[in-house]
Write a structure and sequence with these properties.
Layout: H1 3-25, E1 37-42, E2 45-50, E3 56-62, E4 65-70, H2 72-133
Antiparallel strand pairs: 1-2, 2-3, 3-4
């Protein structure tokens, strides 16, 4: 990348860093009255303040991009959330494995019960037929 392009991108990054507080001062809807982030220039780049959560990040510009690094308290919160989601994901995976086995057992039970009902119906009909055919013989004289 040429030196001219690098200078251009650095200027754009610096302008956007300095334009952050200006944007926050322009009139906006009530829900975003002050903007979400406030940018403040510092020696190594700029400091980004999240006005909703109060978390800060140090942002630096290099060559053609800006990088923001989360503060220690923000990083701890992110790691705690990742750990919580990992546990929840593992629990969901473990829970998802059990129901198909139960569903298969339930299906086997239904098939067995249906077969037993049919066998019982068959036996009752057969017994009824035997009773009907066992009519007493007429008395002989």
């Amino acid at each position: 990348m040429s030196a001219t392009r690098r200078s251009f991108f650095c200027a754009v990054g610096l302008f956007s860093a300095l334009a952050g507080p200006v944007r926050a001062q322009t009139p906006a809807p009530a829900e975003a009255e002050n903007g979400r982030f406030a940018m403040t220039p510092v020696a190594n780049g700029f400091l980004r303040l999240d006005t909703k959560t109060g978390q800060t990040s140090l942002c630096t510009t290099s060559a053609d991009q800006a990088q923001c690094r989360a503060g220690a308290d923000e990083r701890a919160a992110l790691e705690a959330e990742i750990a919580r989601l990992s546990k929840e994901n593992a629990a969901l995976k473990a829970g998802a494995a059990a129901p198909p086995a139960l569903a298969q057992q339930d299906e086997e039970d239904r098939r067995f019960n249906r077969a037993m009902d049919r066998a019982e119906t068959f036996m009752r009909r057969m017994l009824r037929l035997f009773r009907e055919t066992e009519k007493p013989a007429p008395p002989s004289l």
